[in-house]
From TrEMBL:
InterPro entries the UniProt entry points to: Peptidase_S8/S53_dom, Peptidase_S8/S53_dom_sf, Peptidase_S8_Ser-AS, Peptidase_S8_subtilisin-rel, Peptidases_S8_3, S8pro/Inhibitor_I9, S8pro/Inhibitor_I9_sf, SBT
Protein name in the entry: Subtilisin-like protease SBT3.8
Similarity comment: Belongs to the peptidase S8 family.
Lineage: Eukaryota, Viridiplantae, Streptophyta, Embryophyta, Tracheophyta
Signal peptide: 1-27
Amino acid sequence: MSSLHHGSLILIFLASFILILNEKVSSVSPAQAKSKVHIVYLGKRQHHDPEFITNTHHEMLTTVLGSKEASVDSMLYSYRHGFSGFAAKLTEAQAQAVSELPDVVQVMPSRLHKLKTTRSWDYLGLSSSHSSTNLLHETNMGDGIIIGLLDSGIWPESKVFSDKGLGPIPSRWKGGCSSGQSFNATKHCNRKLIGARYFLKGLEAEIGEPLNTTEYLEYLSPRDALGHGTHTSSIAGGSPVVNASYYGLDADILKAFDKAIHDGVDVLSVSLGSDDILFTEIIKPDSILIGSFHAVAQGISVVCAAGNGGPSAQTVENTAPWILTVAASSIDRSFPTPITLGNNRTVMGQAMLIGNHTGFASLVYPDDPHLQSPRALFIPCPALSLRIPPLGRPTFKIDNCLSISPNDTSVAGKVALCFTSGTVETEFSASFVKEARGLGVIIAANSGNTQASCISDFPCIKVSYETGSQILHYISSTRHPHVRLSPSKTHVGKPVPTNVAYFSSRGPSFPSPAVLKPDIAGPGAQIVGAVPSSDLKKNTEFAFHSGTSMATPHIAGIVALLKSLHPHWSPAAIKSAIVTTGWTTDPSGEPIFAEGDPTKLADPFDFGGGIVNPNRAADPGLVYDMGTADYIHYLCTLGYNNSAIFQFTEQSIRCPTGEHSILDLNLPSITIPSLQNSTSLTRNVTNVGAVNSTYKASIISPAGTTITVKPDTLIFNSTIKTVTFSVTVSSIQQVNTGYSFGSLTWIDGVHAVRSPISVRTMIKESYANDS
């Protein structure tokens, strides 16, 4: 399995299944919809007494609602630890009135967030079988570091959450463990799973009634019904977890952040995303942006999923510069699975089938009216989702299995061939075939997306569209098509390539294109982890899942190890160490590709600094460090003034006078979205290696540009620990271009501190004077 370290402690915040809220909210009547959950954000804490803060929140709400009783009835949460604010049920008019009060920074409706849903640690060089000098051993498996996960809960019976061999809970831990439905705090929390909380007031207020756990598979407790949180937490900490739970609504998520800051976590892993991804007055901030800002200001690293909107550009989420945003990659493992057709031809797919082969069974292509003669040729019609294979093969319909009903007798006892358009459609297609009592399913997906997850307890083999078309040709050429599905084999190492996963969201960042996102990629395709059992008395079983949700806890686990090794490093320093040491080829030296339409060589918009390399990140040589002041200056470049900035932090930080460029933000990367002739920017690096060190610049200029660095040699000693340098990028293009990529690497003979560079030339048009 993919457990990492036995020593780290984990915190999880529970999220409900996305479909619950979608369905329930859509059924709320107009009368019920008059009051909705709103978040009133007040910025920094004005007092250190939590009870005093809560009282001021009630006083503020009372001025609008008219009575203390109405305030108590309306307020769901008081945020009083990492920042100040509250969540309350308000009408639009009441929300407007609250927004006009003098101390209010922002009032925003609470929105829904989506979950961004072994061999991986061996692949990264962190298993116990690797060198005794690797990061895992150097940090005693991250002993004493507390990881918080905002996710769908935990299945505490799993052996991966055992506290066997662990010492006492760290004295700095201020959290607790909440009992609830099928979850006993005394029984289920231990020295590994040191805390568990769940937050659902926001969800229940939004749907207008208590959550019906009979109608919807869920627990009113930290227990995980969905399985997402159990899987991600078993990746991040192996045998660990602190579980608090929220239900996917802004108000509940923000409370989870608030409590995590109070409880004393070191790292937060957030496998969630939203559509509003910029912290500005134009696009309203959300709970992840606000909560993560205050967490990082308290020294807590926040690791977030990039999203599963790939392979399209500008789909990356969680784009704030203080967040470590994670893309998903594959690992050097495959599961070749033979598919033997009735004509004795065998093709290969990917699956995790164990046991005996199925024997020859009937093979069916659901939705037969769309199966055309092998000789027919039709014009492509995107609206009908039709794909045209090579001449001589039948046309197939995308997502042909989504119309299968549980009573579909044409599928019962047979293997179905399904063509799918994406990850969700793959999961639904397999589920529908299973519900119709099918024997198994062959999923044909885009050739760059054969890693899409199937359901774990049903024979499901993935093939490319090309292979699926070959199978369909066989079906159309015989009256009684048959197929045999054989057990999978496991292949590790060469020639299995490392790719950025098809589904992984891509840059550039739409709201803030000068900030490179994603930051780094980690294993997120076909990752094994713990999942809930249908029997509460049984240990959790294991299953393979794919998504940036799976990549995020890998990086969070590595951050925890780095935090253990370097306890005084800031979140920015840890992020820099990870970004500047990433693999840009796979561990065996082969190129890394980005799956897509078509597949291409990966670039920084696919994987940021590369594939995470934890052992090199432990000793990066130099780091690009930042603190709250730098993030405040970033907000200044977005148009925030001193009055607004004052609300964000307890520190007396103001916007700098004069012009200030977002390009000067001390990121471990350089992204210039609109280069006109020439531009200069500054960076500073801090030496975290040998005291006396000399680094020289090695530059790979993006195509169509020239780059100069001054100085091009950095000298550090006992008195010089931080050095500032300038970078000038000039265009030699005469026309507008797309992005091109390069790098700046500081080399001292031991370390190679690499910053990815992304540049797009945008030449201003000039017009001659007619007169």
